[in-house]
Design goal:
- This protein is α+β, with helices and mostly antiparallel strands.
- The chain has a single domain (about 15-95), classed as Arc Repressor Mutant, subunit A (Orthogonal Bundle).
- It has 3 helices and 5 strands.
- The chain has a 3-stranded antiparallel β-sheet with strand order 2-3-4, with no helix packed on it. A two-stranded antiparallel ribbon has the order 1-5.
- Strand 3 (about 30-35) and strand 4 form a beta hairpin.
Length: about 100
């Protein structure tokens, strides 16, 4: 496993074991929760995080979202890479 911020589209992103998604009633938002840390997600981030289960490659996540939202692949790729980079830098995500 690596925690690099350079992404190979063939790698499989997954949240680290101690991170979980949770709906925060106070904020009325989805969050990623880790010990002593919380990261508030927007709708785009939530859609990406939901797919980071270690069974889909970065390319599969991009292709699936592009199909689902009928959006240009390059736009989706930019968003996915940006979210994965942030999560990796915050140590919420590993690439397998």
């Amino acid at each position: 496993m690596s925690t690099t911020t350079e992404f190979n589209l063939d790698e499989y992103p997954a949240l680290v074991d101690f991170v979980r998604t949770q709906y925060d009633e106070t904020r009325s938002r989805w969050v990623l929760q880790a010990p002593e840390r919380i990261l508030v997600m927007d709708e785009t981030s939530k859609e990406i995080v939901d797919r980071c289960d270690g069974t889909r490659s970065v390319a599969m996540i991009i292709d699936g979202l592009a199909r689902e939202y009928d959006a240009p692949r390059d736009v989706i790729e930019h968003d996915v890479i940006a979210v994965l980079k942030l999560l990796s830098e915050k140590m919420f995500l590993v690439m397998r």
